[in-house]
Fold these 4 entries.
Entry 1:
Amino acid sequence: MRPKLVLFGDSITEGSFMEGGWGAALANQFSRTADVVLRGYSGYNTRWARLVVERAMDGVCVGGASPKAVTVFFGANDACLPDRGGASQHVPILEYQDNLRSICSFLKEQWPTTIIILITPPPIDEDGRLKNPYGNDNSGLPERTNEFAGAYAKACIALAKESDLPVIDIWSKMQSFPGWEKSFLSDGLHFTALGNRILFEEVVLKLKEKGISLETIPIDLPLFSDIDTNDPHKSLGK
């Protein structure tokens, strides 16, 4: 049975299999060794993710096998400001941490050997959000700010440390590049192809740190170049 890598998150995860997406890049990276399973839910915060995690993971693995890894990527919606257009998605920061804790605990109980990788909320380009307002918000104010998203990123990192889980600080990573606002974010929140590439590279690096790479997962079937054309059944183990 092929190993699985599961991506659990909000719209940035849901859209990760689009052209140039970080999930699609992962599927291509591990195309001969593992299946990448998408569990992305646009608009979700951790409060709603906590309620659906059991159902979301139902059917991910059969026969008792555990995924090699699960990425948990929420917080962009939790970090909507409570007094602006995205207020219905806002989750207070302490509840955000508690929800992440519950989600990770569930995953660990289900699959004790699975690597759980937390990903912080991304940075916010407030100018981009003003040009792409949430819903019918005409207040002239962004429903998210980078400072507020940063507080949730720090809370995610703290929770990862408390729970001894690996974490990708994409909030800080993206901002280490000049011009990140327009290079990495298409609308102040969601990723451009370059933004997707940054996250893909960070996920691959974190997986490798945890012993999951092309070198450590065996190829499921021989490469064409390795097949004995005179006796292909022998090459394929039949």
Entry 2:
Amino acid sequence: MLDLQNRMNAKVHPDWMSQGFAWYRAAWIECAELMDHFGYKWWKKQQADIEQVQLEVVDIWHFGLSAMFTPGADIEKLADAIVNELASYQASGKGVLAATEALAGHCLTEKSFSVSLFWDLMAASGLSFDQLYKQYVGKNVLNFFRQDHGYKDGSYIKIWQGSEDNVHLVEILASADMRSPQFADDVYKSLVARYPSA
């Protein structure tokens, strides 16, 4: 996932690691979006949309991974650092809102990303590592697809056959084999097959 994130960020900006982008800020903003999907407004009827909550968790992971990179970063060392941080991880048992606030609070006060607090949020939202991986790769591929089809210049078509591209992605991922060595390529080809041709 670190490798895929590096490639995606480099596609958007070749020298992305030295730009000083505030990835932690994007992560806490995604936390706020997650809370909207879960529901926090006691003054009106709300139904938690766990699928959307989990999609926001995946979006947070994109920004969290990006936040861990520094100029000249070694992907293997970053992966080891993540594994080491999680070696002593124990779930706090917090609910979704409290776990989200803890991660957002860390992002705001430390201007960095906490893998263990993110893992706590994953546990609170019921997202397994396999689900995170499958959804992360799918969203990463969709982001590449968007860039390859005009996202940056505004020519990308986001709604196809009456559905947003994210909906198509969910349908593709439902039947995709994440254990396939060409999982990412298979997802990309499926997006191409559905996208309206020029």
Entry 3:
Amino acid sequence: MRSDSRLSRMLHVLIHMDRHEHSATSEMISKMLNTNPVVVRRTMAGLRERGYVSSEKGHGGGWTLARPLSEITLLDVYNALGEPHLFAIGPAGDQPQCLVEQAVNSALADAMQEAEALLLRRLGSVTLKQIADEFEAKLEARSAAAYSCAS
């Protein structure tokens, strides 16, 4: 199963959008993500429906943040993307009458439910502002290191 990077990619986009004064067009975002503008519009639509971004059509239009990053959690974006599968592993269904398969699937289901609940709680506790602040700190540290090397 191919991994689904939509959550990571949209978090990336939203933090970039916060750093820019002007709106971001679907074409600009698609170049950043190396994808098609139609894919960007379709993905951003879920974020717009939840009130995290807004869009303007026409010349000078594009996507803008509708809320500050401090009011958007990773879980908010995950939910706006339609709650994509969190894990690539899952139960087998080849032999549903097999008691071993049933026992294995039951054990996996319990573990997966616990892991999913933990991950969703964590996603709900992290705001995009926290990620942006971490980026800023790393950027400052890199700049300070570059300056000290040049001295």
Entry 4:
Amino acid sequence: MSARSLRPEPTISAASVLQDNSRSGEAVDTLARTLWSDARGEPVRAMEALAALVMNRVRRARERGGWWWGGDVVAVCRKPGQFGGWNGGRDAVTSDDPAFAACRRIARRAVAGQLADPTFGATHVHRAGESPDWAHGRSACAEFGTLLFYNDVE
């Protein structure tokens, strides 16, 4: 499998995003690219859980008047070091990729507030077999595919 980057497709323009007076188009595209990068190959439920995690971060930031990872979907997804696909330097994914189409459907539901949160409010995730410092001494609150989710990390 070759690595690909998450550069937005040329068909997603700033004008089309501004046309609907919101950043929802950009948010959906950014979230879909994040899901594609970090969860393609996982079960759909894992992709949905990762989308819920991003939305949990957005909600937490809004409730607290800001948070270190950003306050909207685009900022949360593109925060350096948080989601691997945004580290750049690879080929772009295109809309004809079937996995990306699934990610776009999930992202649209998440941004529209129509996606249930199966993670119990998780804001942190890592793959099984990894051991990030922040996870030491904590138990995952949910597990989907190879992704472990945590809701007790500040």
